[in-house]
Amino acid sequence: MKTCFKCNKEKELSEFYVHPKMADGHLGKCKQCAKDDVSENRAANLERIRAYDRERGKLPHRKQKCKDYAQSHPEVILRCTRNYRKKYPTKYLARNLLNNAVRDGRLKKPNKCSKCGKKGMIHGHHEDYYKPLDVVWLCPVCHKKRHKP
Q: pTM score > 0.85 for this model?
């Protein structure tokens, strides 16, 4: 048994991450408190972390790993696409029709989120998949919130 210095709860040793430099070989805060700290830090520094991730993804060795995986596992990518089309045919069709309309210039995609005004990547959110060109333009963060209120 060990007491977490963050939540002051006594827990089993298995509830603490292993850390070789600690006297008892385990971190001083429990796994849940450690996860909570990481989540808070990510939320507080989201833009900086995303910028770092984007830059890291451009590194040659990371690009190569991605290519290697795609080449060695084409069935996984195909299987996912095929299943998605079968599982959500209306959603898939609406997304395709919207993308084609934007590509062909029949529909203009704005450069900022209609909810928060943030510029950058913008998603078209369908309230009704049977109205494929009737969308709300949202940034990824607002789009995610729209799906998980």
A: no
